[in-house]
Amino acid sequence: MVRHRKEHGRPHVVVVGAGFGGLACANALADAPARLTVIDRRNYHLFQPLLYQVATAALAPTSIATPIRSIVGRQRNTTVLMDEVRGVDRAGRRVFLSEQAITYDFLVVATGARHAYFGRDDWEPFAPGIKKIEDAMAIRHRILLAFERAEMIDDPKEQRRLLTFVVVGGGPTGVELAGAISELAKTALAKDFHWIDPASARIVLVEAGPRVLPSFPEALSARAASALERLGVELKLGAAVTACDGTGVSVGDERIDAGNVLWAAGVRASPAARWLGAPADKVGRVIVDGSLALADDPHVFVIGDTASVPRGDGRPLPGVAPVAKQQGLHVARTIKAILGGATVPAPFRYRDFGSMATIGRRAAVADFGPVRMSGFVAWILWGVVHVYFLIGFRSRVAVAAEWLWAYLTYKRGARLILGLAGAERADSRPSAAAAN
Amino acid sequence: MVRHRKEHGRPHVVVVGAGFGGLACANALADAPARLTVIDRRNYHLFQPLLYQVATAALAPTSIATPIRSIVGRQRNTTVLMDEVRGVDRAGRRVFLSEQAITYDFLVVATGARHAYFGRDDWEPFAPGIKKIEDAMAIRHRILLAFERAEMIDDPKEQRRLLTFVVVGGGPTGVELAGAISELAKTALAKDFHWIDPASARIVLVEAGPRVLPSFPEALSARAASALERLGVELKLGAAVTACDGTGVSVGDERIDAGNVLWAAGVRASPAARWLGAPADKVGRVIVDGSLALADDPHVFVIGDTASVPRGDGRPLPGVAPVAKQQGLHVARTIKAILGGATVPAPFRYRDFGSMATIGRRAAVADFGPVRMSGFVAWILWGVVHVYFLIGFRSRVAVAAEWLWAYLTYKRGARLILGLAGAERADSRPSAAAAN
Fold it and tell me: From the list A5, A418, A434, which residue is nearest B16 (CB)?
């Protein structure tokens, strides 16, 4: 069934993916002489930069996710569909969803990226990554369960293994995750157990390159490294993971027995290139031109982590929210120009306002080109910026309140182990017996 | 392996289940000359009276769940284990857990109840009940997904079915759930859809008896009924469910096609009677004596929804938090008396301070014997009482803030559809395609 609800007979813009890029585009098209359909397989927009805090029990999932309908659903020209893209027919200008096809005049693909294992997908069950809320909740489950299981057993070697956490990847996510696990163990959980000492947990951060935060200036990498070490995180730099299984990980020649190995090392774009039959780069990103459209099809735009944009210096754009947002806005302007009433913008150029990463309590680094910061001031700034960019008044207040509470009490508010699909697979214990 | 960590050589009290009863008992034993082990298959205590608000997207799961360790884990004589009871050896005074057995001097069983289907367990997949957080999240998923699916399709008959919600059971949970679904549809979601009108949703409350809230005085039942009707809830009283399947429900001779049928009609105690080899009543509750111990075993106590307590008038005690708490306290006093240093308390008698149920915004009923209330005042009181009884400063603030926000904005903050284990089963859509 092809459905094309001919409302007002206006041109139809279909935006697939309600991440930072898709929503920026959809918002900017609210006043366009077009009708707009936003499709996402989720009913919420996720504030991914704080997802690691869900994984480490600092934030509730609801605090960093906002219903897409409450963001763009009230725009008069906009329909929101919770559905999945199965394919695209560019010749017929149709998007195939799970049970229907919809036609488009312009298609904006903003379907993001997943974590990737450099060809070792067999490692995924042993070293989960964090891209979705379910990933984060499953990791929260695994981390908290490791302490619970260590408390239950007598074998000191197995206890040691359970209380060893390895984070693979020294980029911002890996650094933030390692710091957060260390804080969880050494402060929030420290006094809650009777037989084990959570503060004795070993947290190892593995990075194949020579330094953490490789995209930051060297001086800030060094400060991040000392902040991590102050938090008790063990750094293994210039060391690649060579094996990964159910009991731990091998780093170079060294074996580390670990109850939890977490993956923050690689990304792979969503399969948009396949849907579109378009050329892609080595991590699957669709190659677009300066207007962010396919070279051979000006009706199809690709943005955010799904797009590979030509750049003077040959380096790819970082997979961060500001890039996706600026691209979404750029595409919206281009579409408005084509529909008349606006000037066609110049080819896309990313305006880099700087980058930040947090390491833990009172420790962060910020790089704004000439201005560089670290320590307490950078940490406060990081918090303010992240609360500011959260969508929705409620999320801002909720996250700010949860952080304030955690700062004052050293506690974590979201320490639930829930029976999630992903978590059940990771945990082999039967769940039939005691009701409570 | 039998493990009996002989700490201080003190008598060992094992509490199974960290609900209202188990925690009240454990808290009261903090100063007893005994060591204490609290076992629960969850790592959190759940404030069950507000669980329906998680199911209707009003509260986040983290707001009504508190880590057990942060409640009793810091008591110096207390160990918390996250584990499941597989059986009890009363002769050897051992509790069998998933991978070990622990010995006890006193055993307190407080493992609660599950929902029950009066012998029609085959209805469960089509009419889920709410006892666990996962249940509530799965129901939230189903309710929100019904609106999403209705928005996607063109068939008005199927849209009508998807937007029909049937709640079975007119007790407090059923009344609260029906009222909350109605408010969700008619206010929070009302303006967020483009093709369907959520406010046109049909909500039906089915009760086999002649009135809703049968445990309340008739006058308050009548007020609750009018409040429900004002909210747009259709009442079917004196009507029993005769069939239940994937497309709806039969009530007497009437067929109601419904996208969601929710079960709030019956409970069944946890399988403690089987573990203990003890006599039980018809819903599986273990029959105990006036000291809440087994008649033939003064070392084993059973409390809360798992216990059937003799009562002068022959009526069972209601399955509510105050009963469980008072029983937990009573058992703690009895154990202390046996260990010396306290007087053996008189046989357990429930002190009924009254009961309350909320119907929706500004509507509730409260019965305190001579004093009866309904409407706005009862609603405010209901809110204050529930916030007061929430455990932990953080939960109190979080719930109060979420309610205030919802009251002022008419929005719901927890509208996430997550890929939970239970929810995936309920929803047959494949989840492989689009990343985002």
Answer: A434
